[in-house]
């Protein structure tokens, strides 16, 4: 079978979310058939999710299923009806800090919901499951850059713990049932149509409103900010390369990133950590307005720095992010102004 023309549609869960929307748009541009799933919950403004979805609805090859991952019967029926060739699971309860407030939402969506996806793949001939993990799984690890070949058993948020649980669950299904599973640890994705709970969106809104921005850890934070188009390119390349068993894997010195099962983990990031204060300065320049800064201590569940080792992804699929923070932030600002109807002379 030609991997670029699989036998059935691609399921993208979380299609009204930030990454899911952009991925679906790219797949449709490539002529793929996509079923997008989302529950359109109100974790953040559902109007933004609907606006993303409106960009997809009506396009050839796209259909939408409004469904919650925790709906076991609904998910099973969807898989049986559509006979998906590939599955990209991006739906999740996101956000590190919110997991301190509403922990049950994370277990419901990220653990119970993911189990339903795995069961759908188990009982139907899915050729490849690609699922979202997170850089947050590295937790207390301070060895930089973060590598998928390092141990990640010390999470500092429930969100991170559920993402590590996803990796373990997927490995179990890959081992028991031969389902090719690839986990992608995303590193601070940003860009147009981004999430309103992320720093760039929060900062832009506050700066334009003349309100102070909250700068945690006294500004001594570094993040491997990764532009959305680079992320999507990496996901598409991985989607067409189903995970395979590692013939060199040894139980005497087990490699966390590979397996004797058809299972792989990859970091997907920019491999270029950016100081938070540099991000803020870049945003100020793009907006033409200086932020009032409120310096605060580190928040529970946060880590001071992230940095993705992407050597494996580069070697296996040629992944090489191309978008600088200056270019990416400017594109975000251009979109933000247009979406919110903010004129340049209002900055």
What are the main properties of this structure?
single chain; 347 residues; alpha/beta; seven-stranded parallel sheet; 37% helix; disordered N terminus
Describe this protein's structure.
The protein is α/β, with parallel strands linked by helices and 347 residues long. The chain has helices at residues 18-29, 46-54, 72-82, 103-122, 158-177, 199-208, 228-239, 276-287, 311-317, 325-340, and strands spanning 10-13, 34-38, 62-66, 86-89, 128-134, 181-186, 189-190, 213-215, 222-223, 226-227, 263-268, 274-275, 293-295. The strands form 4 sheets. The protein has a 7-stranded parallel beta sheet with strand order 3-2-1-4-5-6-11, with helices on both faces. A two-stranded parallel ribbon has the order 7-10. Helix 5 links the parallel strand 5 (128-134) and strand 6 (181-186). Helix 6 (199-208) crosses helix 8 (276-287). The longest helix is centred in the first third of the chain and has 20 residues, at 103-122. Residues 1-5 have low confidence and may be disordered.
């Amino acid at each position: 079978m030609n991997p670029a023309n699989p036998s059935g549609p691609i399921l993208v869960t979380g299609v009204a979310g930030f990454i899911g929307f952009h991925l679906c748009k790219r797949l449709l541009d490539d002529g793929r058939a996509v079923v997008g799933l989302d529950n359109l919950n109100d974790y953040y403004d559902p109007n933004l999710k609907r606006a993303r979805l409106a960009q997809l609805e009506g396009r050839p090859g796209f259909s939408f299923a409004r469904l919650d991952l925790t709906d076991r019967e609904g998910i099973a029926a969807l898989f049986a009806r559509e006979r998906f060739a590939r599955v990209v699971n991006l739906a999740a309860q996101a956000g590190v800090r919110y997991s301190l407030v509403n922990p049950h939402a994370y277990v419901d969506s990220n653990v119970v919901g993911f189990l339903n996806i795995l069961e759908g793949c188990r009982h139907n001939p899915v050729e490849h499951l690609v699922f979202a993990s997170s850089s947050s799984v590295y937790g207390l690890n301070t060895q930089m850059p973060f590598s998928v070949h390092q141990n990640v058993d010390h999470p500092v948020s429930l969100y991170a713990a559920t993402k590590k649980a996803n990796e373990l669950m997927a490995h179990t299904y890959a081992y028991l049932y031969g389902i090719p599973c690839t986990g992608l640890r995303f590193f601070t994705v940003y860009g147009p149509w981004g999430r309103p709970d992320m720093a760039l969106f929060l900062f832009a809104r506050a700066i334009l409103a003349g309100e102070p921005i909250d700068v945690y850890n006294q500004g001594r934070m570094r993040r491997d900010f990764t532009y959305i188009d680079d992320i999507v390119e990496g996901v598409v390349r991985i989607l067409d390369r189903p995970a395979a068993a590692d013939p060199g894997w040894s139980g005497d010195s087990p490699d966390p990133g590979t397996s004797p099962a058809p299972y792989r983990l990859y970091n997907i990031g920019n491999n270029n950590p950016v100081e938070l204060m540099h991000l803020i300065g870049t945003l100020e320049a793009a907006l033409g307005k200086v932020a009032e800064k409120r310096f605060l201590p580190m928040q529970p569940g946060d880590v001071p720095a992230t940095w993705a080792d992407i050597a494996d992804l580069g070697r296996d699929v040629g992944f090489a992010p191309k978008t600088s923070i200056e270019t990416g932030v400017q594109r975000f600002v251009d979109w933000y102004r247009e979406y919110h109807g903010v004129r340049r002379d209002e900055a």
